[in-house]
Structures are given as C-alpha cells and as structure tokens.
C-alpha cells in the first residue's frame, strides 16, 4: 500500500505491518483514504481530530445552505380584481425572497364544468410574474384544485430594501412635530383667561 505520513510526505509502497508500526510510533491512527486506488492509499493521522473537522465543515455547509420553502396561494375562478392584484403582489414577494410558489385555483360544485376559467386565471398570473419566476410544473388538476408550480427566476429584479431609521432618531424626529392641538368649540380654562 502507498503510505502518507503525518507530515503529508509520501513514504512510498510499504507493507501493512510496517505502516502499523510507524503509526504506533507516532501515536496516531492508520487510515485507508483511497481503497479503490492501486495500490491502496493509507495515511497516518489523528482520526478523531479528522472526524471533528469533517463534522465542523459539514455543519458550516448546512448553515450556509439556503432552504427553499414552497409557499401556496389559493384563488378561485371568479376572483375579484383587487384580490387578484393582492395575491400577485404576494407571489412576487415570495419569488423575490427565493421561495417556490404553488398557485392553486379551487373549484366548487358547478365550477368544475368551467375549468377553462381557472386556466385563464393561472395564465394571467404567469403573464403578471413573468420577470420574477418561471414555470416549473404546467397547470394540472389535482382533485378539485388546478395547480401550477413557479420557481424563482435566476435573474430576479432587485428587491427594494425598506429604509428604516433607528428608533432613537425616529422618536427625535417626531417630537418637535407634535405640537399641542387647538381645541375647537371648547371654553378656555380659568387660568388661560
């Protein structure tokens, strides 16, 4: 087997017994790092320390990983214009935050005979959010719901950060503006005469 010692120096092809003696002399572990290679590669290292560092790297990688959440917006085939605009605004916000969005149109009773109205609503949504996301799953029926899945686009328009002043500055700015209001149709107090 090919041996690498604790200083990362190649020792060449060595027998297993000789490698074990070198590991014991250094008070470290002999670890096989590439069993599929010819000859197999072994390394002399502190295995406990290696495992700890590996777990730490994995934990940091998971911490930096962004989890995508699926948000769902429900609509009806006869949705009002204001409700539609409000929900499209919410869909855009979800896509800007990097979430996937499932848009569902719910049909009740006789509305099942007019599936084309639900498809029109979904097509209208897709036209409105064209810059923010792309269709991941075409419209399809699932029971009494017609659903579509939208994933955020790679080049989303930048979300405008909300300008917020620190709390102390906000209170100071409001204090001088708050002047006592004059009361109408009220008799003055005795000390004000």
Account of the 3D structure:
13% of the residues are buried. It contains 5 helices and 8 strands. It has helices at 16-25, 47-64, 81-96, 115-128, 167-177; strands at 2-4, 10-13, 29-34, 41-45, 70-75, 100-106, 133-142, 145-152. With 193 residues, it is an alpha/beta fold. It is rod-shaped and about 80 Å long.
Keywords:
single chain, 193 residues, alpha/beta, 4-stranded mixed beta sheet, 5 helices, 8 strands, rod-shaped
- pLDDT averaged over residues: 82
SSE sequence, one letter per element = EEHEEHEHEHEEH
**Backbone structural class:** alpha/beta
Contiguous uncertain segments of 5+ residues: none
- Please report which band the strand proportion falls in: under 5%, 5-15%, 15-25%, 25-35%, 35-45% or over 45%: 25-35%
Helix content: 25-40%
Q: Choose one word for the global shape.
A: rod-shaped
Distance between the termini: 107 Å
Widest β-sheet, arrangement of strands: 2-1-4-3
Number of helical runs?
5
Rg for CA atoms:
33 Å
Oligomer: single chain
Largest sheet, in brief, is: 4 strands, mixed
Total count of strands: 8
